[in-house]
Amino acid sequence: MSDDLKILEDVANSEYKWGFVSNFESDNAPKGLNEDIVRFISAKKNEPEWLLEYRLKAFRHWQTMTEPAWPNVDYPKVDFQDIIYYSAPKSKVQLDSLDDLDPEIKATFDKLGISLEEQKRLANVAVDAVIDSVSVKTTFREALLEKGIIFSSFSEAVHEHPELIKKYLGSVVPYTDNFYAALNAAVFSDGSFCYIPKGVRCPMELSTYFRINSAGTGQFERTLIIAEEGAYVSYLEGCTAPMRDENQLHAAVVEIVSHAEAQVKYSTVQNWYPGDKNGKGGIFNFVTKRGICLGYKSKISWTQVETGSAITWKYPSVILKGDNSVGEFYSVAVTNNMQQADTGTKMIHIGKNTSSTIISKGISGGRSHNSYRGLVKINKSADNARNFSQCDSLLLGDQCGAHTFPYLEVSNKSAKVEHEATTSKVGEDQIFYCNQRGISTEDAVGLIVNGYCKEVFNKLPMEFAVEAQKLLAISLEGSVG
Amino acid sequence: MSTLQETKITILNSAVFENWVNASPRVDVFATITKDAAQAFLLQGIPTTKHEEWKYTNVTRLAQTAFQVSKSNATLTTSGVTNEKVTADAILIVIENGIINKAASNIDALPQGIQIGSIHDLKDNTAIQKHFLQHADYKSEPFVALNTATFLDAVCILADANVEFNTPIHLMIVNTSNEANVYIPVRVFVAAEKNASIHVVETFSSKGNNTTAFVNAVSEVVVADNAKVNYVKLQGESENTTHINYHRVAMARDSYQHLTTLSLGGGLIRNNLNIRLGDINGTAYLNGLTLARNTQLVDHHTVVDHAMPHCYSNELYKNLIDDKAQGVFNGKIFVRKDAQKTNAFQSNKNLLLSNDATMNAKPQLEIFADDVKCSHGATTGQLDDEALFYLRARGIGEEAARALLNHAFAADVLEGIAHEGIKKNMLDFVNHKLN
Fold first, then answer.
1. Is residue A193's pLDDT more than 80?
2. What is the pTM (predicted TM-score) of this model?
3. Structural domain range at position A366
4. pLDDT at A217 over 80
């Protein structure tokens, strides 16, 4: 037991490795939120009238809403008037090559270990790097354009493809959806837009790195991915943020539209600053992510590895509207110290022969709380719908908590819904087995936990799988014995 | 989060409620609690579906109906109820419209160490003084508050230390009133002292022509060190009955409790089972079976609270939902911080027999200790095609094959009933309902 405690202490003391602040100038909006700020953001981005109208409608709706408080997390109330809603790096020049990039920004990426050149050369990944709120650089864009794929920042897409934005913005997550979605719709700064035309298979993994940089800046990303009939895209989102003492709010919205026989695979590795071991600071990650399978055999797959943030509160969901459509959710959520996570998914079955799979692995250590909350809803129309859910929790200490709140709502007799959940700790016999074979306790725990998460890691694209394993290793460093 | 205002509605006719409270023949010793509970109820009101615990079960119409305590006189006689006893030798207590009908009961010649009677007669008993009204939480359960404020009578069953009593104690709870909108509060208290062992059966039925009835039952069961309580609840009221049931078990060291709930009738049934494993090495079994038809709604909410280490709990809930009926299962397992070496299991299996049937399941785990083994599983579906094919290949008609499989599905739950006589009687009820 004393070993456990010592090791837990070590974990608690291990530093957040990606904490640093880069000193490039920001062009900030004044603190606070009112109609003028919404207009300011819209004007700053030189947006057309209809988008401003959309923002204002969302803002007015947001004012009528009250902050939700149902999740199984505790946090100090967010003062929405104490947030800077817009901040952009000053020099916003379209760059021809990576050499023209602000060295400061480049160094930031280097520190993160995601240098653009390297990515470009080795990983064949096009990176839309978002520092704070404005896209600084989009790579591989032309290569993609040849195939008719549009991959750009959201604000560019607003100017270049207004018809697509008009058609799809808010079609999956309307601004009336929830408190944070309304807030995002009113003040969203930038994000990514991705459009795969009919029958096109995107030749590379699309990727963005989000970073929250200026102190006190809320990050309100908006991502919209559209896959036309028969298209395929794999989209990667990864996050790290510098160390800060005040809480930072991140309320992003991700919308995915998958048409008939299209497939969208969305992977996330989230490693935002979780706060120090006493729970001071850290990011609030309140995100609305939802996809809709519109046509026959469309498919949306969410994979997430959540290791950061003081509070993670999100439910990547799939609406299975088309017949034979498929929804998947694979998640690893690690909480340590004072972190709290309330995450899971929603699978709404509407079409016939729809199927969904949910695999969720929660790992809690320190004094953290990790909750799985998921909804599987089989509508009356969803004949032969099929769902399988598995939610496992692993506890690494006696101060933490693991919670499971699945909701299974079935209104069709031909549906088959299965849910199972287990909670346990790393078995002493397993560790003993490893020890016997000369593997240290620490390595053994890493091995066992990695094996425990393997089902999910296998679903990640190669580049992410490596990063995810590293993250897990950091989170578990010197962990339980 | 919805505000408090949204999650409750205050009883529309609070004058009616005042009347109930004032009409209850109070037992003076408990007057403080009943008054406090009345306040607690007025504060909580009737929950709406915005209340997370009442998300799938809408009871707001209870607030819109002016229910009244039954004014009917007792009509049942010994001969009238004998053949409804769970076993021929069972000790029978008839609770008619919320009040014990002593004439129809046979509790005069009880064996040594067993006491059964009304709270009015047993109020000086030490176990009752200590535990009665102490366990069912009226501060956070509105219907417990309502019951605590308004019960007219309470059945008390006391088993002294070291008494092993294998004859079933049958609480026959009957609504015989012919009045409209009748409200029937039922209160039961069971205490098994150290090393005692008893079998208790509650059956709920309606015999009157009442248009709508609201049965609000609360049972408190106290299981002392190494004591054993086997409990069966059979709910088979008419379809115009709303039945809210709260069952609380407080378990001591090395104790054992086995509870089977059979929800076969009623219009709307809500069961709240709350088992607290308050000391080490307790064992709790919770089984439940629902056979719902027409527009019935049957809701099982269970809470198993592992407060201490080395306890074991096992839940098995099966629901067969037909026609336009709705089933709800919400099972919570709490493992408190110090409850190491806990083993807690929960299984919920549901069959939908019609396309208009709905099943909402929410199996929950909340775990704060690391050295535990906890799991839950929930499935909803229809009969296995292969099993059906197997039977049909052997010359059994489709109808009969389905009946056979439904029966096998349901009978599983009854297997755990320890007393053979009770088990047989319950199987008869289930068979009757299934056929």
1. yes
2. 0.84
3. 2-475
4. no
